Fold each of these.
Amino acid sequence: MKPATKLIHTGERIDTGATPSLTVPIYETSTFVFDSVADVIKYQEGKLNGYLYSRYENPTVVAVEQKVAAVDGAEAALLFSSGMAAISTTLLTLLKPGDEILCSAAIYGGTFHIIEDLMTKFGVERRFITLDDLANLDRVIGPKTKMVWFESPINPTLRCVDVRKVAAACKKAGVMSVIDNTFASALNQPVASMGIDLSMQSATKYLNGHSDVTGGALSGSKSVIAPLAKARRLLGGIMDPIPAFALGRGIKTMPLRVAQHNANALKVAQHFENHTALECVHYPGLTSHPDHAIAKGQMSGFGGVVTLDIKGGRDAAFRVFDQLKIIKRAASLGGVESICSLPILTSQYGLTDDELVQAGVSKGMVRISIGLEDASDLIADLEQALA
Ligand SMILES: Cc1ncc(COP(=O)(O)O)c(C=O)c1O
């Protein structure tokens, strides 16, 4: 089946009994009934295909996990109550005291802080590495390295990392490669087919796509996912059935949504590329982007996030932000509605001037998650704000 067909039909028709519903029902129950002690024993021995308790597994959640695995082209997937629950479960399960994680310095703030502030308490060592290091992992991976964690495209500069190259270097060294594929989504960037061991996504973003679910997802081979599923039972971060239902519904239209996000973002980026009020436009689909060649080699679409660097720096960016009429002032990305955030007040909040320079982030940056409105309305809104 092609992706559009797969995402609609995978995981559906789980109720084929007396109430054969077309769509996945919401199994809003904390626990499940057994007929006999024999059945409980069979369940515990893995011989009964049933459910015990919704912190372990829930039929609605399992059905949507099958959809996520289909999106990602992976053998298995797990859903979590947030992207951060997926990240914390991964780190706590796969790393132990004395292990080292190599993490891209250009990473989501929550990921940085959990590695820097929390994992170090458990004796996990970390090195934050540059894009240049990621391109030359052979010389960076050390004897204690167990995991490499990175993103591509990176927020808010949308710099890109050669995913196949990272996967190959990790494979050669026997190190686990983990990508946060939230910004691209697997429909644009199918990382499982590029040799990545584990893909993490904030399902809050493009997977759900309607800004009404907080969730996280992990996908990979069955052998990579199995210990994470076991640990999720203990750490307790599984997604609830109601958000899982909404997520499954969102995924059915994901190919349409992602294609339109890509098309709208490219239109906006191209329109503003040489605008006199801007220093530059950051979008990997533009030939002027420093990593356009890498992006072209691994992405079928360039995603929905565009960053404008406004001439006049911070004050000018603040004025543009306040003038927007259709595009809403809000954090996050990946929803049907266009939203806009200022990196120095969100993802890069509190960084010194030097740290901002190192991250390639300027005070005039305005990050826009381009939604599914008509692109001409978004362009008009940005034009009037810039004026
Ligand atoms: C790239 C990226 N990774 C992870 C997360 C964390 O996901 P969540 O907010 O769903 O916990 C976010 C949230 O903004 C993100 O942008």
Amino acid sequence: MSKIVIIGGGPAGMFAAYELSKNGQEVTLIESGLDVEDRRKAIAKEDSAGPHYISGMGGSGTFSDGKMNLHPQIGGDLTEFAPRSEAESLILYVDRIFTAHGAPKEAEISPDARKLEIRAMREGLKYIPIRQKHVGSDLLPDVVSSIRKEMESFGLKVLIGTSATDITVEKGRVSGVKIRDKKGKESTLPADYVIAAPGRAGSQWLLDLAKEKGIGFRYGPLDIGVRVEVPNEVMEEVTKISWDPKFHVRTKRYDDFVRTFCTNPSGFVITENYGKFVSVNGHSMKNKYSNNTNFAFLVRISLTHPVENTTQYGRSICMLATTIGGGKAILQRLGDLKAGHRSTWERIEKSYVEPTNKDVTPGDIAMALPARIVGDLVEGLDMLAKVVPGVNDQSTLLYAPEAKFKSIRLEITKKLEAAQVKNLFTAGDGAGVSGGIIPAAATGLIAAKEILRREKDA
Ligand SMILES: Cc1cc2nc3c(=O)[nH]c(=O)nc-3n(C[C@H](O)[C@H](O)[C@H](O)COP(=O)(O)OP(=O)(O)OC[C@H]3O[C@@H](n4cnc5c(N)ncnc54)[C@H](O)[C@@H]3O)c2cc1C
């Protein structure tokens, strides 16, 4: 029987492993981080969100808000890889597995969504109605554990605390994965197929590997900006219609694309530590509430000539922001940003919004992000306020930087196989083909289904 190695225990790797092991394949899943329960303990001990938030069994979303967007073109575009009806079926399939393991069943589009869409259109914004469900950070780890148990009952082998260090290729075909276990012991797992799904944490590793193996790649766009925090009341009207409302704005000055992303009603802003820099994020929980709603407000940047590397550009912006924040994320009132002065704790206290993340430095976002991005954010919030009044109030809090690196896209086929290396598949955020739990899982399934098809034909 063919040997299949999957790199990364996030949704992309997990769902690929689920499908393959359920169909009787010999699969080894390797995950460099901790197991779910150990992650839970490690996170509880961390002052601010450390590496265990983004790494470990279940992947970066496990201790996140667990908002699931059931739309083939949100969080990536699955229609690039499958006809729309097939892409929709994949999403339903992923949803069914999550639901069978404890995620809530209900996911409907509110009848008021169409009205909001029209209102937004009249104000020059785009609102995208989507079916959504909210699992919540405190429930998702149990869902992940339950899926994992089922996969192991299918015969899946899971290597926790084990990192893939290299992928071996012989005569243009994948032949194995070099690994290092938690004790530092190195070995090679022979493999007839590999699915590399290392997530954002492993995207640089994947890029280095692609360069070394002569696999073509291109840089994806960077989404960079701030996390906005307002009182729940400001967002209530739209979050009642959809938990995570998706607004797209095109700014007049630069004709740039700005969007809302990952909204967390009654949620909390967190800091993620990427070693050389910090970036903010947000989550909300099923059983713990704040008085605030937060959402990411992000400007899309693509680079062409002479620099195409959006990852490097995004990282350097985040590093600058981290420098000016003294190693922490920056917090600023929108009123202070507009008035051209930094925020201080004294000024923040004048705000009607109490920050949910105080492990930050009150400062000046204009010193941290490029002027074009700051201009887009301020203009974009003013435009958004036409549909969400109050969102551009001077009390509104902004945390920076927030960056979503959809960094590289390997040269891949529609089945997610690397064009230059046979039987090497990629899936999920690290490969630049998704940006969310559901789409990442769906890309894992696309790769898995192709392997199953080949094995059946063999
Ligand atoms: C704080 C936060 C909140 C989020 N909230 C949401 C949300 O509400 N809804 C939503 O849809 N999405 C959310 N996301 C995004 C979502 O989690 C990701 O889109 C999704 O998890 C990507 O899945 P993935 O499998 O591609 O990668 P990941 O989930 O990142 O998993 C990759 C895994 O691979 C492991 N790995 C990396 N390199 C190696 C290696 N060399 N060897 C072995 N293992 C390796 C990593 O440790 C990691 O566990 C959030 C993300 C974060 C960080």
